[in-house]
Specification:
Blueprint lengths: L1 H17 L4 H44 L1 H11 L1 E2 L5 E2 L1 H14 L5 H26 L9 H14 L3 E4 L10 E5 L2 E7 L8 H13 L4 E6 L5 H10 L1 E5 L6 H11 L7
Helix pairs in contact: 1-2, 3-5, 7-8
Amino acid sequence: MYLFVFGAGVAAALSWFYGWHHLPVFFAVAVLLPVAVAIVWWWFARLTEAARLANEMRRWHGVAEEHREALALRYRQLVSRNPYGGLEMKPWSKELERFRESTGIAGSPERIAAFDEELTERVKGWACEAEAVSSAGRFRSGDPYEYERWCASQLSRFGWKAEATVSSADQGVDVVAVKGGVKVALQCKLHNSVVGNKAIQEVHAAAAFIDATHAAVVAPSDYTRAARQLAGKLGVLLLHHTQLSKLDELLAGAEKAGALPPDA
């Protein structure tokens, strides 16, 4: 509005000085051209902002891609179905918040909500891929003994000599897996809720009893903070069953990081 009034004033002044018959030309130059330039500038600014926001979203998803494996694992551990068939997403929402805080992703509430929604769909796909490739599908039964045998069969698929123990004489070990000079004592916990300290304490003691070189707990769910702290102190590996396919790598990585004792 101010631009129009200013241009009209300039056009009138020039027409008064040079003659009123030049008014249309002066009006076009002094009023219409600046208005056109302003419109083009406004449109360009909008396009630039849209491009900036799109680049920002791509960058955020690029950061998520770098943490693909960890995000997929946490999704599998935290998202479960309630008794009514719905997905319990609150733990996952908190995990997304922790992920964003840890990686410096920040923006308006609307932008963050859109990112969380898009990322959740991507992570869900990653988790399904991991279930299909790493563990030949999701374990469906609710039988804990069947879960132990299933975990042993998954390890056998990837080169381990693995057997589920007899429940009456397992000493806290559900599966014993051997490959080369490595012997792993595993406790398999088919829990819908988080796994606590007891499993870590039991498998650590049992591993020493059977002279295993390593100890691990396997579960489809998450572990308590106290359990993670204790496992780190005792050198017990905490796994989701989709990670059994790369147990060798995880043991080697944990030893390199100093989280596990070297092989006996």
